[in-house]
């Protein structure tokens, strides 16, 4: 196995979940600490992407609106 320092770039978020493999894959409930940790990390990744996608959609709609207005 490689040294831990060679496995990480320094840009990732690292946290632990006090569980074996099965416990990391199947949480007891949404209140489980591991579930909340995973959910928080996923949301921190997805929310900025959602904002970017929303802005791109607005830009696209504005461009399409300009094109329609030019045709009229």
User: Helix/strand/pairing class, anyone?
Assistant: mainly alpha
Question: How far apart lie the N and C ends?
Answer: 66 Å
* Largest sheet descriptor: none
Uncertain residue segments:
none
- The share of residues in helices is 55-70%
Shape: elongated
Provide a count of the helices. Answer: 3
Average pLDDT reading? 79
Order of helices and strands: HHH
Total number of domains: 1
Portion of residues in beta strands equals under 5%
Q: If you compute it from the alpha carbons, what radius of gyration comes out, rounded to the nearest whole angstrom? A: 21 Å
Number of strands: 0
* Oligomeric status: single chain
Structure description:
With 72 residues, the protein is an all-alpha fold. The chain is built from three helices and no strands.
